[in-house]
Amino acid sequence: MKRFLFIVALFLAPVALFVGLFAGAVYASGEWRTEEEIAARVAAGEPAFLGLAYRDNTRYYKHLVANGLGADLLVLGTSRSMQFHSEFFTTGSFYNAGGGAAYVNEFQFFLEQLDEDKLPSTLIMVLDQYFFNGAWVGTGGMPEAFDYNHYEFSMRSALPEAIRGWVQGKLTLRAAYSAHPDVYGMAAVGRGSGFNPDGSYCYGTLLDHPDQGTDVGFHDTFDRILKGTDRFEYGEYVYERSTEVIQSLLAWCNERGIEVVLIVPPYAPSVYERMAESGNYGYFDWIMPVLTELCEPYGYEVYDFSYMPDTLDEEYVDGYHGSDRVYARLALHLAEESETLAGLIDTGYLQRALAPSSSPLRLAE
C-alpha cells in the first residue's frame, strides 16, 4: 500500500507543481485584488494600472473611482470613449469613466448613483450611433435599472483560464511573477492592457502587433455590416425611446448645473464609407438633427465625428475603436470648435504628440 501511495505521489507531484506554478502566477499578478482596493488607491492619487482577465467589473470599478475622485471633467460612454486621456486636457481634475454605460439610459443611472458633491461640472458624453438604432436596442433591451454589483474573484475559474492563456501564448509565467507592484491583473501583466489611473484604456501589445487582433483588415466589422448584426444592424430612423432618454438626461444635467458636450464617436474611414455605400444606415442622418434640437434649450454642444477622413484606417484598433492618435485629433477639433472645452484642451501637447517627427503616440502606458 505504501509503495502504491508513493507511486501515486510521484505521478501527481509534477501535476501539483504545474498547477501550483499557475496558481502562484495568478496570485502574483494581483488578479485577485478587489476593485474597491484599486479604486481607493486611484482616488488617493496613487499609481495603479488595472487589467483583469477573468472577470469584467468595468462599470462597477469606474463608478467607484468616479465617486471617489469627484472629477470636474468627466468622460462617460462605452469602450469607444476610453481613449480620452488626462494629457489631452489642462485641468488636473479629470476622469474617464468610459465603460460606465452600455446603453443610452445607463448614463443617467451612472450619474444618479454618484454622490451629489462628486458630480462633474463638465461632462463629455460619447453617444455611440447604435444607441439610436431600434434594431440594435431590441437585441438586448434597455435595462430598467442598473445594479453596480460585481463578480467576485474565483481561483477555480481563473486557474484553467490562466493555463489556457499560457498555452495560447497570451501570457508568460515570468511576466506574472515579475509584475510591477502598481500593476494588477493578468491582462495587465500578460498583454499590458488595462485601465490607467485616469480611467483611459491601454490596448498594450495589440498596439505593436495589430496582426494579433480579432479584426485584422476589419474583416469582422465588414462581415457585421454585410449581415447587419452585432451593433451594425440596419435602421432607417432614430429610435424614439432613445431620444426620450437623452431628453430626460439632458434636463437632469441642466438641473444640476452640469455643462454637457455630446460626441458621436468615429468609425475607421473605410468602415464608415462601407456603411454609407450600403444604404442601410439611414438613421445616421437623423442623429445630429435630433441631438441638436435636444441640446438647444440648454445651450449644450453636440459634435458628430462618425467620419474623420483626417485619420487613417491603421490608426484604429478595430473597425469602430479609434486609437490614442484618433482621439488626439478629435480633441484638437474640439479645441477649435467647442466653447465649452476650448480652454480645457492642451493643444500644445496634442500638436507635439501628433507631429510627424515625434515618436508614435503612446499615451496609455
Give a verbal description of the structure.
With 365 residues, the chain is α/β, with parallel strands linked by helices. Helices cover 44% and strands 10% of the residues. The chain contains 15 helices and 11 strands. The chain has helices at 2-29, 35-43, 58-69, 106-112, 134-140, 155-167, 173-177, 186-191, 205-208, 219-227, 240-255, 269-278, 284-295, 324-337, 347-354; strands at residues 49-50, 73-76, 94-96, 122-126, 183-184, 194-195, 201-202, 259-264, 301-304, 316-318, 321-322. A hairpin with a 5-residue loop joins strand 6 (194-195) and strand 7. Helix 1 (2-29) crosses helix 6, helix 2 packs parallel to helix 3 (58-69) and helix 10 (219-227) runs parallel beside helix 12 (269-278). It is globular, with a radius of gyration of 22 Å. The termini are far apart. The model has no long low-confidence stretch (mean pLDDT 89).
Task: State the assembly state of the protein chains.
Answer: single chain
pLDDT average, as an integer?
89
Strand segment count: 11
Strands across the major sheet, in which order? 3-2-4-8-9
The helix/strand series, from N terminus to C terminus, equals HHEHEEHEHHHEHEEHHHEHHEEEHH
**Taking Cα atoms only, what radius of gyration do you get, to the nearest Å?**
22 Å
Uncertain spans, ≥5 residues at pLDDT below 50?
Answer: none
Helix content: 40-55%
How big a fraction of the residues is strand? 5-15%
Q: Give the count of helical stretches.
A: 15
Structural class: alpha/beta
Beginning-to-end CA distance, first to last residue: 57 Å
- Largest β-sheet summary: 5 strands, parallel
